[in-house]
From TrEMBL:
<comment type="pathway">
    <text>Sphingolipid metabolism.</text>
</comment>
<keyword id="KW-0812">Transmembrane</keyword>
<comment type="pathway">
    <text>Lipid metabolism; sphingolipid metabolism.</text>
</comment>
<dbReference type="GO" id="GO:0046513">
    <property type="term" value="P:ceramide biosynthetic process"/>
</dbReference>
<keyword id="KW-0472">Membrane</keyword>
<dbReference type="InterPro" id="IPR006634">
    <property type="entry name" value="TLC-dom"/>
</dbReference>
<feature type="transmembrane region" description="Helical">
    <location>
        <begin position="105"/>
        <end position="127"/>
    </location>
</feature>
<feature type="transmembrane region" description="Helical">
    <location>
        <begin position="178"/>
        <end position="194"/>
    </location>
</feature>
<dbReference type="Pfam" id="PF03798">
    <property type="entry name" value="TRAM_LAG1_CLN8"/>
</dbReference>
<dbReference type="InterPro" id="IPR016439">
    <property type="entry name" value="Lag1/Lac1-like"/>
</dbReference>
<keyword id="KW-1133">Transmembrane helix</keyword>
<dbReference type="GO" id="GO:0050291">
    <property type="term" value="F:sphingosine N-acyltransferase activity"/>
</dbReference>
<feature type="domain" description="TLC">
    <location>
        <begin position="96"/>
        <end position="301"/>
    </location>
</feature>
<feature type="transmembrane region" description="Helical">
    <location>
        <begin position="268"/>
        <end position="290"/>
    </location>
</feature>
<dbReference type="GO" id="GO:0016020">
    <property type="term" value="C:membrane"/>
</dbReference>
<feature type="transmembrane region" description="Helical">
    <location>
        <begin position="229"/>
        <end position="248"/>
    </location>
</feature>
<protein>
    <recommendedName>
        <fullName>TLC domain-containing protein</fullName>
    </recommendedName>
</protein>
Length: 330
């Protein structure tokens, strides 16, 4: 929408291919590294002092909301999720795991819905035109209230998630990877807000939360023994994860962060720091996608669903179906 309130069409930017992304990103980053004469801790400290802006009240709100998320999860688990599991007569193992997935499904659905609202039902055009995330960027610029709310919700939730992974969730094989993921995500959220890269941050959150919605919904189907349509759920999960995290994320976000950012804002602060974290996030996305693909190829129809349950947020325990020889060999 324009300032006068009239609606105008948004022309989508042409997306680069994978080859364009790899060539462009690494050539631009190597050129920036060669041209950086004083890169190091001194420059980083100076950039923090000059460009990072986080008010003490915002830090306080972060901790308050992180505690509130923890309290809300405990309340919903005690008074809603666990009673519902007992009412449904779930298997004890499933009843123990169901509240965690239910809680995450509730949060990610809410968070992704809000990101979708920001990107497609307001005047922001970051999805259609990713390079616009750096237009009119200024150090210390004000953050729009609607985006600041999204950042507060997400940052405080990942602060809660770091605590929950260690003290509330069942410890599983990939819990260390999940802990690293939460720390990297929280660092990206905090530093992107402090350096006013909030526009591209909204795009990153939108592209990641939807996969978690589908993952937790699929796991709840497992716990409730809803076998019908399991293959459609799995196909949808893998297609969604590939489209959002392995296609749009590198070609819309990483290409913009590596290439378009320097074209729009030469000498943009903390360029290497942010792109290193974004590439680390991409590597973890590839890791989780390949792990699940291998499990799907090795497992039979019933073992497939149980192995998925033991994935990113599972406990690693199998319920009723017994694994076939391929899974035991794995």
């Amino acid at each position: 929408k324009t300032a006068a309130g009239s609606t105008c069409a948004v022309t989508a930017e042409p997306m680069p291919g994978y080859a364009d992304f790899i060539r462009g990103a690494f050539s631009v980053m190597l050129a920036a590294l060669r041209d950086c004469e004083d890169c190091g801790l001194t420059l980083s400290a100076r950039s923090l002092q000059l460009h990072a802006r986080v008010a003490p009240s915002e830090v306080g709100l972060f901790f308050v909301c992180a505690v509130l998320w923890t309290g809300l999860r405990r309340t919903l688990t005690t008074h809603a999720f666990e009673p519902f599991a007992r009412w449904c007569h779930l298997h004890p193992r499933d009843a123990a795991k169901m509240p965690e997935s239910a809680w995450k499904l509730v949060f990610y659905t809410m968070a992704w819905s809000y990101s979708t609202y920001l990107l497609f039902f307001t005047s922001y055009t970051f999805f259609q035109s990713p390079s616009s995330v750096f237009h009119n960027w200024k150090s210390g610029m004000s953050v729009p209230t609607d985006i600041a709310i999204a950042y507060l919700i997400q940052a405080s939730f990942y602060g809660h998630s770091i605590y929950a992974t260690v003290h509330m969730d069942a410890w599983r094989k990939d819990s260390k990877v999940m802990l690293v993921h939460h720390i990297i995500t929280l660092a990206l959220i905090i530093f992107s807000y402090a350096f006013r890269y909030h526009n591209i941050g909204v795009l990153v959150l939108f592209l990641h939360d939807i996969s978690d919605i589908q993952l937790e919904f699929t796991k709840l189907n497992i716990y409730f023994r809803t076998r019908g349509g399991r293959y459609y759920l799995l196909v949808s999960l893998f297609c969604c994860r590939f489209l959002f995290r392995l296609y749009w994320f590198p070609l819309k976000v990483l290409y913009t962060s590596c290439v378009s950012s320097l074209q729009t804002v030469p000498n943009i602060p903390f360029y290497f720091f942010f792109n290193t974290l974004l590439f680390a996030l991409l590597l973890m996305n590839i890791y989780w996608f390949l792990v699940r693909r291998v499990l799907v190829l090795k497992a039979d129809g019933r073992g497939l669903v149980e192995k998925l349950s033991a994935g990113k947020h599972g406990t690693g325990e199998r319920c009723v179906p017994k694994p076939n020889a391929a899974i035991r060999a794995a």
